[in-house]
């Protein structure tokens, strides 16, 4: 998705004949240092914007999001588990197109999506985890062929990462709760924010909240 106009081992080493028990404390210290190093490395990667799915598998994480009910009412901030699934589980849950977008950072073809601005109130949830993402009231016609919004329904519900693919630097947007790729944000949107959150429609699920 692009901008407005482009979407040795040493074999001579002698083996020590000391009893194994004499080495136990040293082994314990090594394990402790190794574990600490891995933890620090993971923290450093996370601080640089790497999604948690690139870190050690099986890690348990919590994220803070703003919860909305199906009437679009804001229920407040919540600390919720990060949604982590195996590749097989994601493939079973998602359509092939949605899997390619959300889990492989793909981009749908322009003008191939399902969502123009709806003619009734509502909001969009992530198809991967149900996290609330965008209010339809902030959607606008950008002419790019992708659903566009001038702000998220809550800043806490999305995360931003630097994307340097395709010989350019962009800011990609991911779902905070499942880290699914959603699209990109650009600085060519309308007032009041001047931003255009250019999203992939297959990553979104519209939830109507009333009549037009």
Q: How would you describe the overall organization of this protein?
A:
Helices cover 19% and strands 26% of the residues. The strands form three sheets. It has a six-stranded antiparallel beta sheet. Strands 4-3-11 form a three-stranded antiparallel beta sheet, with no helix packed on it. With 212 residues, it is α+β, with helices and mostly antiparallel strands. It has two domains: 23-54; 60-208, Metal Binding Protein, Guanine Nucleotide Exchange Factor, Chain A (Beta Complex), CATH 2.170.150. Mean pLDDT is 80; it is low at 4-58. A hairpin with a 5-residue loop joins strand 3 and strand 4.
Brief characterization of the structure:
With 212 residues, the protein is of the alpha+beta class. It is built from 3 helices and 11 strands; from the N terminus they run αββααβββββββββ.
Secondary-structure map with pairings?
Layout: H1 24-47, E1 62-68, E2 74-81, H2 87-93, H3 96-104, E3 122-126, E4 132-135, E5 139-140, E6 148-149, E7 158-163, E8 170-175, E9 181-186, E10 196-199, E11 204-208
Antiparallel strand pairs: 1-2, 3-4, 3-11, 5-6, 6-10, 7-8, 8-9, 9-10
Number of domains: 2
N-to-C CA distance: 31 Å
The whole-number mean of residue pLDDT values reads 80
Low-confidence stretches: 4-58
Total beta-strand segments: 11
Order of helices and strands: HEEHHEEEEEEEEE
Per CATH, what is the topology of the largest domain?
Metal Binding Protein, Guanine Nucleotide Exchange Factor, Chain A
Features:
three-stranded antiparallel sheet, Metal Binding Protein, Guanine Nucleotide Exchange Factor, Chain A, 3 helices, 212 residues, alpha+beta
